[in-house]
């Protein structure tokens, strides 16, 4: 008998994502976190956990055979009694709405910034999504082993660009070739970088401890005392409430490549980051400690092989203790689903999940039943909210090769939009279809799937619009006025909701000013 309760299991879980701009070091940091958690091993090292593995999931084989890649979507590891679920936010060319939506399934995030470059565009975009949900952010200033910007300058940039309070929890000693390590401002320790990576820890009594001189050159000690002293004075002290409300970010400095500062970062997440949060539904708030199991789907990974319709839906457990084989209500369809082969994800392995707890992510293999935004619930008829669609950043007009297939096209586009692959808008005037995505790769997936699964050949051409906003107003007349005055810019999304298509941000701002009673929304709750 398992005595663990959902509340106790939740208290020891940290579900988080890393947000960063390509090349800041997310992959390197992830690898070092997994190493720390024993989830991956250096070449030659014995896999200690190998023997303990339970039933291996077949999914890994299916993945390889059929070209579905879920390899790094979720990585679970344990350290010092805490289970960490690290969710991947796909970066580079695979940047997509999934990248944003993953952030709806986490309780906190780590923002990795390159010490020489500061805040970059993609980090900023991802940060905005975190802000929508007040997700607390821990900052890791990476690549201190290279020529970096002054730490104060970096912290100012974070504070000003993101409008956050900034509190350093470690302070770097030198940078580039002269980077010697960090001073741990929480536990008053000197952490010196070892040649072969990692850090050597020396306990001290404070910044004025004469022992510092034994370990560091005199000019370094002086600089450390000045800078760290100033940082302590100038920055607000760490405040848990403010951090958890998303107003303050604790900052760590380090070098992922040299495996330096990573253990302190993880400790910081373990100590401060919130456990699984209470989640909103259309009826009431669901606390993780509740007995009945609930969860929502935030991502669906489709098969690239058109012969198979295997999909894997990523479900975040929000409450209760999930057991394998359990029957859950699929709220959208009103049908029951028995989940026989739930998958837990490890860096190099998949396992059948015998049980899962609030904050955990399980993979549910299915044939297209589960969609992004779906709720699964053991008993109550509730729907989780807050898993929105995000305004697309790339819009394309769809060109149909064979005009006889226009009905098929509509069906295909709407169905793929429901699945969360792309968004679709039908223009009020002319009726042409516009598709919207946040990442280029989604467009390629769309063209391939429309052809392979629906037998319709399409091409995409530039659309005269840059972005879309869902428009809402309290009374119909206000909305009608906007629609009438802008017929060429209006469209409907797959659910029939009115959407304003903007040629540029200037036009969007102008319309907002002209129509103060209309809400132009960059997100839409999924139907
Ligand atoms: P990403 O996932 O955020 O895109 O970044 P990734 O970890 O792939 O790192 C991008 C580049 O930055 C890599 O170099 C990586 O080795 C380097 N890097 C990451 N962390 C650090 C660090 O702390 N210090 C230094 N000096 N470099 C770091 P690359 O040359 O592009 O790739 P590779 O050939 O080393 O794999």
Provide a descriptive summary of the structure in words.
It contains 14 helices and 33 strands. It is α+β, with helices and mostly antiparallel strands and 527 residues long. The protein folds into three domains: 215 residues, Rossmann fold (3-Layer(aba) Sandwich); 99 residues, Rossmann fold (3-Layer(aba) Sandwich), CATH 3.40.50.300; 138 residues, Alpha-Beta Plaits, CATH 3.30.70.3280. Strands 28-25-27-26-30-31-29-32 form an eight-stranded antiparallel sheet. It has a seven-stranded mixed sheet with strand order 2-3-1-4-5-11-6, sandwiched between helices. β19 and β20 form a beta hairpin. α11 crosses α12. The longest helix has 17 residues. The protein is globular, with a radius of gyration of 25 Å. Guanosine-5',3'-tetraphosphate binds next to α2.
Q: Biggest β-sheet: count, sense, barrel?
A: 8 strands, antiparallel
CATH architecture of the largest domain: 3-Layer(aba) Sandwich
Distance between the termini: 40 Å
Looking at the structure, the CATH topology of the largest domain is: Rossmann fold
Beta-strand percentage?
A: 25-35%
Give the number of domains.
Answer: 3
Strand order of the largest sheet: 28-25-27-26-30-31-29-32
Low-confidence stretches: 43-54
Subcellular location: Cytoplasm
Keywords: Cytoplasm, GTP-binding, Nucleotide-binding, Protein biosynthesis
Organism: Hwanghaeella grinnelliae
GO molecular function: GTP binding; GTPase activity; guanosine tetraphosphate binding; translation release factor activity, codon nonspecific; translation release factor activity, codon specific
């Amino acid at each position: 008998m398992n005595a663990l309760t959902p509340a106790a299991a939740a208290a020891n879980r940290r579900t988080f994502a890393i947000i960063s701009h390509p090349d800041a070091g997310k992959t390197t940091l992830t690898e070092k976190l997994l190493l720390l958690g024993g989830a991956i091993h250096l070449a030659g090292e014995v896999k200690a956990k190998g023997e303990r593995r339970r039933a291996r999931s077949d999914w890994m084989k299916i993945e390889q055979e059929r070209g579905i890649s879920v390899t790094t979507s979720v990585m679970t590891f344990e350290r010092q009694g805490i289970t960490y679920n690290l969710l991947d936010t796909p970066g580079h060319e695979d940047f997509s709405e999934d990248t944003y939506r993953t952030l709806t399934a986490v309780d906190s995030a780590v923002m990795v910034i390159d010490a020489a470059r500061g805040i970059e565009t993609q980090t900023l975009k991802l940060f905005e999504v975190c802000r929508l949900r007040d997700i607390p952010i821990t900052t890791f200033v990476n690549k201190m082993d290279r020529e970096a910007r002054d730490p104060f300058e970096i912290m100012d940039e974070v504070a000003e660009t993101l409008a956050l309070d900034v509190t350093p929890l470690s302070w770097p000693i030198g940078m580039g070739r002269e980077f010697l390590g960090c001073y741990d401002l929480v536990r008053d320790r000197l952490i010196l970088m070892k040649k072969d990576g990692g850090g050597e820890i020396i306990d001290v009594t404070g910044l004025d401890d004469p022992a510092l001189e034994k370990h560091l050159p005199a000019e370094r000690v002086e600089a450390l005392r000045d800078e760290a002293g100033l940082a302590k004075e100038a920055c607000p002290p760490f405040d848990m409430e403010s951090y958890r409300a998303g107003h303050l970010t604790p900052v760590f400095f380090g070098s992922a490549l040299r495996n330096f500062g990573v253990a302190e970062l993880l400790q910081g997440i373990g100590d401060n980051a919130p456990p699984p949060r209470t989640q909103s539904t259309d009826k009431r708030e669901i606390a993780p400690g509740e007995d009945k199991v609930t969860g929502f789907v935030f991502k669906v990974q489709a098969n690239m092989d058109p012969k198979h319709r295997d999909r894997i839906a990523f479900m975040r457990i929000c409450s209760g203790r999930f057991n394998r084989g359990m029957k859950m209500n699929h709220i959208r369809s009103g049908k029951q689903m028995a989940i026989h082969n739930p998958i837990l994800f490890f860096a190099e392995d998949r396992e059948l999940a015998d049980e899962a707890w609030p904050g955990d992510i399980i993979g549910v293999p299915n044939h297209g039943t589960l969609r992004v935004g779906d709720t699964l619930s053991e008993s109550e008829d509730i729907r989780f909210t807050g898993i929105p669609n995000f305004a697309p950043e790339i819009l394309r007009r769809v060109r149909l090769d064979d005009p006889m297939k226009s009905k098929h096209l509509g069906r295909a586009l709407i169905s793929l939009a429901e699945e969360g692959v792309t968004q679709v808008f039908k223009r009020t005037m002319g009726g042409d279809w516009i598709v919207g995505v946040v990442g280029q790769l989604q467009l390629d997936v769309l063209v391939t799937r429309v052809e392979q699964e629906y037998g319709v050949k399409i091409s995409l051409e530039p659309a005269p619009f840059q972005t879309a906003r869902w428009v809402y107003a309290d009374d119909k007349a206000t909305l009608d006025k906007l629609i009438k005055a802008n017929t060429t810019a209006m469209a409907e999304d797959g659910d029939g909701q009115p959407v304003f298509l903007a040629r540029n941000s200037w036009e969007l701002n102008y319309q907002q000013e002209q129509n103060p009673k209309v809400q132009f929304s960059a997100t839409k709750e999924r139907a």
